[in-house]
Amino acid sequence: MSTGPIRLTGTAHTALRPASAARITGGFWAERRRVNAAASIPQGPGKLEEAGNLRNLRAAAGAEPGGFSGDYQFQDSDVHKWLEAACWQYADAPDPVLAAELGRIAALLAAAQDEDGYLQTYYQLGRPDLRWRELAWGHELYCAGHLIQAAVAHRRATGQDALLAVAERFAGHIDATFGAGRGKAVDGVGGHPEIETALVELYRETGQRRWLSLAGYFLDRRGHGALADSLGTDRGHDRDPGAAYWQDHAPLREAPTVTGHAVRQLYLLAGAADIAAETGEPELRTALERLWSAMARTKTYLTGGLGARHEGEAFGDPYELPPDRAYAETCAAIASVQFCWRMALLTGEARYADLAERTLFNGFLSGVGLDGERWLYVNPLQVREDGEEAHPHSDQAARRTPWFRCACCPPNAMRLLASLPHYVASGASGASGASGAGGLQLHQYATGAYAAGGGAVSVETGYPWSGRIAVTVTEAPAGEEWTLSLRIPEWARSGQGAPAVLDGAPLDAASTPDGWLRLRRRWQPGETVLLDLPLAPRLTRPRPRVDAVRGCVALEYGPLVYCLEEQDLPGGVAMSDVRVDPDAPLAAERRPDLLGGVTVLTTGDLTAVPYYAWANRTDGAMRVWIPRQDG
């Protein structure tokens, strides 16, 4: 049974199930998670205190006088996301100091809750008469969703029920309020999806099917223009961004492509994937596969970033992917990873892990400073040397910031890093699954130990700096055939393939067009597979339809996208004047002294660094897509 963010029911209609045990113990991601645990998560309570989030809860609990503090209706959600992150971290490494902080904030949430179960301090302290009347911009259901996810994480991490009881009371209040039947006060949806995925997980945790039904109601109700009717009651929001902004323009099953606010769209898709997993509805699954394909093919940046437009934090038209005006919000990258993981479980297909890997190493990780204390809200692929800001608002500038007025991204990044081990491995749902007949699947490569599908493995690797991955079977069914499936990343599936060796005998990994190398045999504990992914610098050309980068190339190395930074250019050379000779040799050089230890790429007199590490030295020009000399 999974101890992570997703715990499928026994009747789920999925090809795969999350690993029952997962730990990252070394290597690249262990270091990023160490910084998350040592720097990022500990700074959370102080930042939430400074911003007024925790004071709002004390005021709602009657422990402190005063009204609402802060600029946004969704201030509470930052507390919930931090709490979820802290829970996953505690589950991985129990700590008495963290346990005390979890208990303090959980008790504060319980004290702030109204008698009828309602809990959102913006309305409790401001205008309780407007509860559920500002659905478009009020974020009440959004905050409820994050509270539920935090409560589920709290129970799985600590075994305690107190915070889950708070979440269930709020969910019960929502269930009594929303619906199309007699006695329901509201027949509508919130402007920001999130409640859907949370309610499904609450169903999985408690076994109460009413939560799954309520999630289905919110999914089915969206897309019928209901939010436009609530705009007139929303204080301070006289603009109408259009129904597509909050995915209210068409029912999800009929939508032709992803559109509108990127994070809203992706949270809705993640929730829909959870619903499809538990109901097995074919029409919903087909729609999800169609929407994911359209997104991956036409609206995803090379870094995995999503959201081309600053206005509305939104997806653009197909192939509208300007590098300098990219919004590519960190939260959108996080939501994409969550959506991809759910689709991987649903279908068993490796393509979802391919995009998740690209996003994790690039468009997500760029949002987190190497020190774990500075953040990017947006993640453009180009910053000009003249200082022009594509996003002049302080929260959205292309420079690292200790915190934001709209602080959705930092605690969101914390919770993904804290729960990352649970995105690495899975087990097949039945005797035969989409990724092979039973067994364990490795979707991502991180040194650690993983158990799933009736067996367990340990992984040792220097990935992404090294392509060598050693997978040792530590448990397997005695006397039975069992399948170990290794994902061959998309970038490694061309050319000579990925050599693999088992007990000194070579294995053919080139015959895996679907991305899986499946090894089915009677395994003995201690047997090791050595997989060598062909790491080499490469030039990547853009898709011809992406006008904004036509005539350019990008540098990549394994799963990593690279960029040029101003401080690494030859003296007197401006970023706007740089050109790359596509025929010049490319070389990789290990630099343990730079940016926490990285491999740099060189061509001619140019040196490129991993995109995830940009803006960690000084502010300045940066570029991913570089014009060709022959361009």
UniProtKB/TrEMBL annotation:
Ranges for domain Non-reducing end beta-L-arabinofuranosidase-like GH127 catalytic: 23-421
Keyword Hydrolase listed: yes
InterPro entries linked to this entry: 6-hairpin_glycosidase_sf (IPR008928), Beta-AFase-like (IPR049174), Beta-AFase-like_GH127_C (IPR049049), Beta-AFase-like_GH127_cat (IPR012878), Beta-AFase-like_GH127_middle (IPR049046)
Entry annotated with the keyword Secreted: no
Xref: SUPFAM superfamilies: Six-hairpin glycosidases
Source species, domain of life: Bacteria
GO biological process terms held by the UniProt record: carbohydrate metabolic process
Location of the Non-reducing end beta-L-arabinofuranosidase-like GH127 middle domain: 455-535
A Pfam family hit: Glyco_hydro127M
Keywords (A to Z) from UniProt: Hydrolase
GO molecular-function terms, A-Z: hydrolase activity
Start and end residues of each Non-reducing end beta-L-arabinofuranosidase-like GH127 C-terminal domain: 537-627
Protein name: Glycoside hydrolase family 127 protein
Organism: Streptomyces boncukensis
